[in-house]
Design brief:
The protein is α+β, with helices and mostly antiparallel strands. The chain has two domains: about 150 residues, Beta-Lactamase (2-Layer Sandwich); about 220 residues. Strands 2-1-5-4-3 form a five-stranded antiparallel β-sheet, sandwiched between helices. A hairpin with a 2-residue loop joins strand 4 and strand 5. The protein is elongated, with a radius of gyration of 29 Å.
Amino acid sequence: MDLPLRRNTRPDIDQEVPFSFEELFFSRTDLKGIIRSGNSVFQRISMYSWDELINRAHSIIRHPDMPRAVFWLLWDTIKKGEPIGAYVKNKAKDGRYYWVFAIVTPIEGGYLSVRLKPSSALFPIVDREYKSLAAATSRQSKISPEDAAAILLDRLAQLGFKSYGAFMSTALSKEMAARNERLGRAPDGMIACFDEIVTAADALLRQAGDIFAAYEKNEYVPLNLRVQVTRLGQSAATIGVISNNYDLIAGEIRSNMSRFMASAQQVHKTINDGLFLLCTAKVQQEVAEFFRTEASSGRQSHEQEMLYLEQQQNAYQQKAVDGLRAITAQAERFHQDCTEMKRLAASLEVTRVMGKMESSRLRVAKTDLDELIDDLEVFQTSVADGLREIDQMNHNIRHNAQRLLNIMDDRV
């Protein structure tokens, strides 16, 4: 007699565990990454029972497709007491997968991870990059996680992100905007305003880089001027004086340029940090509200976990306020650096005009000296124009940051 065929009930591991955009979930671990608690959404999606989750390493849900570099960056950051955000592909008990954007923050005695469902246009790009990175590092079995992280950071730079901090702040703001759209919510005005600040910071940093590149291109003008003075002899003595003046100004520019660039980079970093803190505070607030409506699992203290969430929510709201204050302060310092650079640019203009007048007085055919004076004009103009644009961007940054700060101050 033929036996009936047994239906294969094993799930397809290439399928995704479904959950909705409304659902937010969290888990709390100790300092070693051992799960101490979480909410019902986390337990349901992971498909483990609470008895299987509590006191187990959080790596129980780690998916083999995840690049080691991401976890190295995550642990390197949170061990320093700093928050981090990352796209993470997890594995449920039955082998299926689910993607989250996770925000991990240090708390007393451990870490809190809150997660949302990703859906922005950046998400598929990250999925593709993770696969590429995982494949590349698997071919180099001896590569360390730290070296793999360096590869990831280099790739992010190629994609236009100055740092991992810039990437995670952009990613989180985009995921929150995409989630709001999926849920039929109006765009978040505060995040939209912050996005304008970030756009201005990106442009500011590019413009500062252009000024630095123009400086490097003309770094040897004083030396070349001295060569021309020697070639022309005594008749070019005044040009020699002008050359010396330019040399002194160039030296001041050189000593200020490093501080100028470092200040621009700090403005950029402070703004991206501020955006991440603001978004984190908003997600944590919504997670707390979501968890407040959940029934207790009976396996953990609902009140205690609610307390952890509320403490983190309040802490990151204050961090967001502090971040906005840091932006306004850093932008003001950068404004002062720009003012000094504008003073030097004005001195360059005077020197250039004097050089042009003296070159005409010599009444010689167009020489390398004229070309040097022309190069100096191009450099001086690019610096002056660039600084004017930077000053306007910096003003907009300070204005918008102060506007957001006024809103946040009213809420904290």
